[in-house]
Amino acid sequence: MTTTTLLTGGSFFEGPRWYQGHWWVSDFYRGTVSRVTPSGEETVVLEVATQPSGSGRLPDGSLVVVSMTDQRVLRWDGSALATYAALAPYCGGLLNDLVVDAAGHVFVGDFGFDLMGGGAPGPATLKRVDPDGTITVVAGDLLFPNGMVITADGGTLLVGETFGNRYTAFDLAGDGSLSNRRVWAEFGPVPTGSTLEEALGQLVVAPDGCTGDAEGHLWVADAVGGRAVRVAEGGEVVDEVRAPEGLGVYACALGGEDGRTLLLCCAPDFLEHNRRAAREAVLLTVEVAVPHAGRP
Fold first, then answer.
1. If we measure between CA atoms, which residue out of 7, 103, 90, 2 comes closest to residue 57?
2. Is the pLDDT of residue 194 over 90?
3. pLDDT reading at 118 higher than 90
């Protein structure tokens, strides 16, 4: 499949979403959340100096976005930006990606360790922020919970574990409670060892940002493979899109008017000391056969 360049000049794009005819995307080190037209015109909507990441929409249409370094979820109602949830007491690393269910429960994960400092991988938790502001740890022992998808029927939450070689699934109830934890897709054994380098070397697919389609598959950014892969339940890779030489793929989303445009967030690597001052990140698009379904 042939990719097309939509936007250049980013530092590290993440958290892509399609909403009301536009792409929305965070940029870690420019500290921006932008709206991008299908023709590639960018408008910076928010400035978040504390490193924005995953985002979603509450039932009233307001935007919630992760603020990574101070471990908050922020809410923007179209005019004012405010703290929606302060999650530092529940985190072992930077706050990361989120997904919002139909009732407005926000599920958000954190790194669990100091990735950029080269720390040894360790387990992290998944947090739920309820509409009334209550914060609950709903799952533990996740190996870098990252991109998440809620299936089209609203009944299953899929959590990518970047350092676990897998997706973990939970039954999702209307009140936001999770049950029946299980492995949804397994790409290889859980990495062993005590260093970041050892773990990275054992990853077969490192799930990063992801998106669901109408056949129940996931498009998954493989953070170590320079590609996005289409994954079936169980872990079979049934299709892939390769990034151009020299680029990795760190998030993806399905959107466009027919839901068949796959947006890829690409950069030469994910290392902060390389990306912060550089402006080498790009957004690429490719047309696929099966449209978007589920959340985000």
1. 103
2. no
3. no
d(CA 185, CA 292): 19
Q: pLDDT grade, residue 21 (50/70/90)?
A: very high
Q: How far apart are CA 287 and CA 267, in angstroms?
A: 20
Identify the residue whose tokens are 């998030």: 251
Nearest to 282 by CA among 10, 3, 1, 54: 10
N- to C-terminal Cα separation, the chain: 24
Q: Please give the structure tokens belonging to residue 254.
A: 């399905």
Label residue 233 exposed, middle or buried (CB < 10 Å: 0-12, 13-18, 19+).
middle
What pLDDT is attached to residue 115? 84
How many degrees, rounded to 5, is the angle at CA 219 between CA 227 and CA 270?
45
CA nearest neighbour of 190 among 101, 123, 279? 123
* Beta carbons of 44 and 25 less than 8 angstroms apart: no
Structural domains of the chain sorted by starting position, each given as residue range(s) with its CATH number in brackets: 4-287 (2.120.10.30)
